[in-house]
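$ ./design --mode recover --in tokens.txt
reading tokens...
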């Protein structure tokens, strides 16, 4: 398929999308209402995506269209003009932490030229391993945990005991955690949010060297878009939760034994990524509200140039309320 190559930095427009989602969802921090938080993020994100000059189709969304307030797979967004792009969204990566008032909830979105973004079909989860630029050529998702940790440590010029591995805190990872501990590496368990977990491997200030474990396939594609810009990499293998899911995937031509590389997940360098913090975390600060406004902290990335920007913004909500249908 011939790519339609975007020529302007759409990431600078995408940050308005994630900021809008974060400002809406941030009001629900700690209020225990995941549905309301997700609705606020989706409404803010859809509103701003439709203002961007693009012919966009959601490849990584929230399933098929139903009565829920979601950004659904196959939905068309933007003004309908060139460029033609695939869209991946996660209005809230970390809905549960947001609802409970915990750290590391973010809003994310990515764009890539039409036909270059991996569609995971019926598979909701995948095995993943992600690292930063220093170790991108040494990892192997089929290799034992010990071998990967030793190779990553060597590539970084460190001892294994100095390496920190980020892992989702799930019962399915008990064996993985035991193997990491046996090798002697350190572990950072996170309750949710493996887009942030993967991205942290490429940002030295976070102290994270590698991400391992089973997480969401949508989050894997979003993380791949970000790692295109930072110089890191992600490898994955689709994971079937049930025999029915496995059979559905096989009928569609998916192979759970196939190793998915960064090029498989996002097959173009001309990719754009934006993320805004909703609650405070290692990656981004959360939304901070004050009397008549709020501040946000965002990352904006472009794969073609490798440019990574950090944008701290002050929003005057009393002014926004005069021109926006979204009640921030």
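writing sequence...
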């Amino acid at each position: 398929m011939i790519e339609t190559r975007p020529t302007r930095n759409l990431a600078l427009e995408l940050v308005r999308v994630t900021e809008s989602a974060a400002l809406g969802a941030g009001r629900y921090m700690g209020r225990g209402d995941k549905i309301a938080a997700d609705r606020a993020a989706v409404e803010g994100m859809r509103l701003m995506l439709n203002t961007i000059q693009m012919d966009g189709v959601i490849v990584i969304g929230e399933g098929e269209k139903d009565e829920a307030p979601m950004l659904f797979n196959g939905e068309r967004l933007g003004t309908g003009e060139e460029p033609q792009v695939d869209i991946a969204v996660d209005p809230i990566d970390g809905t549960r932490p947001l609802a409970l008032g915990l750290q590391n909830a973010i809003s994310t979105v990515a764009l890539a030229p039409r036909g270059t973004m991996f569609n995971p079909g019926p598979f909701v989860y995948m095995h993943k391993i992600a690292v930063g630029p220093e170790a991108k050529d040494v990892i192997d998702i089929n290799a034992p945990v010990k071998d990967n940790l030793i190779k990553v440590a060597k590539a970084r010029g460190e001892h294994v005991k100095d390496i920190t591995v980020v892992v989702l805190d799930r019962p399915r990872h008990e064996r993985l955690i035991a193997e990491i501990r046996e090798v002697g590496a350190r572990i950072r368990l996170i309750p949710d949010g493996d887009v942030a977990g993967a991205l942290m491997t490429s940002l030295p200030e976070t102290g994270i060297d590698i991400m391992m474990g089973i997480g969401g396939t949508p989050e894997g594609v979003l993380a791949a878009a970000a790692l295109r810009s930072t110089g890191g990499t992600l490898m994955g293998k689709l994971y079937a939760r049930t025999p029915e899911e496995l059979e559905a995937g096989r009928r569609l031509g998916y192979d759970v034994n196939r190793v998915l590389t960064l090029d498989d997940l996002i097959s173009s360098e001309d990719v754009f990524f934006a993320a805004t913090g909703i609650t405070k975390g290692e990656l981004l600060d959360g939304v901070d509200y004050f009397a008549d406004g709020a501040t946000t902290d965002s990352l904006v990335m472009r794969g073609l140039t490798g440019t990574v920007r950090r944008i701290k913004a002050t929003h005057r909500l009393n002014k926004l309320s005069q021109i926006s249908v979204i009640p921030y």
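exit 0
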